[in-house]
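Weekly sync, protein design subgroup
Attendees: M.S., D.O., the rotation student, P.L. (late)

Item 1: inverse folding check
M.S. brought a backbone from last month's batch and wanted to see whether the design step gives back something sensible before we order anything. D.O. pointed out we never logged the input encoding, so this time it goes straight into the notes. Structure tokens as presented (404 positions):
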């Protein structure tokens, strides 16, 4: 069949790998410009080592003075060798530049890992399906489906990496663009949220996060690297003092990564296996409908433990702003939107201080009252019976399987 031609698949993969190589060629100047800018902030750009090791060049130039002390000086006191556009750099600006540079290095590593994975995976299936023909063929998943999926997913990842690189470009004078500033905040928040799971031993120390701007918020797991890709909606772009509420979705997305890629430090089981084992011990068998919600509620719980009641308030606000079509329906994956805020407050009620006192009791009461009031006033009330009293047993049973 023309749709399943081995030569055509080979040509597609060759083109994809060429595009990846071209991306690497194009992105290297972006990375190099960031490295030079690190030296330019201190006027060390003319040092022979600046292009390879800007930090050494800066330290040689500063001598006994620390970079922090240098950046605290007023712009007028800085040497004329510091370009004018960079004379007002503060510690925060310099931190963002260094973080951007590290993220670009991670993009280089991820691009190389993608190319290797796509090339080796393609060769494996090409030989197994078309050359040696020693792989079993499933009627439900024919070879062309496998090949198309491999090419499509690798293509999508390449596109994401390109976005992550281009959105961190800087202006010619070294100043950050608005996109870069937005991603800098997203990167920092994501690292804080992920760092707790890493420090507690649930995720490998080499786990990385790369954020990028796209249409909506979404987490993407890749099988060839301990890297989580999180898209932030363009609506998060801002230049004011109040950050977008879209950032509050980051801990939830990291919860999904922990669910699939984490390992419980005591049981040594994957996080998903550990939770399913605990669910079974709590009486939730494999055919229990509540297990359909396990991943989402676990991700909610992770976000609630990290950020507290603001997560529940933001979720209520999100539903008010953009109500789903299945407001009172079970999708077999997400908890029913109408009762999900009540589940979240029941999870919050399980959080106690060292004396066993509920930490957010008053906040949970306010959140429940707010949500009941919203349901009562909403136009859908006329067509559907609403929930008047949330069940506490569901959340308590889910909490029983939360990893301690």
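Designed sequence read out in the meeting:
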């Amino acid at each position: 069949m023309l749709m399943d031609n081995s030569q055509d698949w080979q040509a597609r993969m060759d083109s994809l790998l060429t595009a990846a190589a071209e991306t690497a060629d194009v992105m290297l100047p972006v990375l190099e410009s960031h490295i030079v800018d690190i030296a330019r902030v201190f006027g060390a750009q003319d040092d022979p080592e600046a292009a390879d090791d800007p930090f050494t060049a800066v330290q040689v130039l500063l001598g006994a003075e620390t970079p922090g002390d240098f950046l605290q000086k007023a712009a007028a006191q800085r040497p004329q060798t510091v370009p004018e556009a960079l004379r007002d750099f503060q510690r925060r600006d310099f931190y963002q530049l260094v973080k951007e540079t590290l993220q670009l290095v991670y993009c280089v590593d991820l691009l190389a890992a993608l190319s290797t994975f796509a090339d080796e995976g393609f060769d494996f299936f090409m030989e197994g399906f078309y050359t040696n023909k020693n792989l079993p063929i499933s009627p439900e998943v024919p070879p062309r489906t496998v090949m198309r999926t491999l090419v499509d997913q690798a293509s999508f990842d390449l596109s994401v990496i390109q976005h992550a690189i281009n959105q961190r470009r800087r202006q010619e004078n070294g100043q950050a663009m608005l996109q870069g500033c937005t991603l800098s905040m997203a990167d920092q928040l994501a690292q804080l949220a992920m760092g707790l799971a890493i420090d507690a031993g649930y995720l490998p120390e080499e786990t990385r996060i790369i954020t990028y701007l796209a249409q909506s918020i979404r987490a993407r797991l890749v099988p060839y690297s301990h890297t989580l890709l999180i898209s932030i909606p363009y609506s998060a772009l801002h230049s004011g003092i109040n950050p977008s509420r879209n950032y509050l979705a980051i801990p939830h997305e990291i919860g999904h990564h922990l669910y699939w890629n984490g390992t419980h430090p005591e049981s040594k089981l994957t996080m998903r296996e550990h939770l399913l084992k605990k669910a079974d011990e709590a009486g939730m068998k494999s055919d229990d409908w509540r297990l359909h919600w396990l991943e989402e509620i676990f991700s909610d719980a992770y976000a609630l433990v990290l950020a507290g009641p603001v997560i529940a308030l933001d979720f209520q606000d999100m539903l008010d702003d953009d109500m789903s079509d299945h407001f009172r329906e079970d999708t077999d994956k997400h908890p029913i939107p109408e009762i999900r805020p009540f589940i979240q407050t029941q999870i919050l009620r399980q959080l106690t201080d060292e004396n066993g006192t509920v930490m957010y009791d008053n906040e949970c009461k306010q959140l429940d009252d707010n949500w009941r009031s919203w349901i009562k006033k909403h136009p859908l009330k006329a067509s559907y019976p609403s929930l008047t009293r949330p069940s506490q047993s569901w959340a308590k049973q889910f909490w029983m399987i939360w990893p301690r």
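Discussion: Residues 263-400 form one domain. DSSP finds 13 helices and three strands in the chain.
Action: P.L. to compare against the previous round before Friday.
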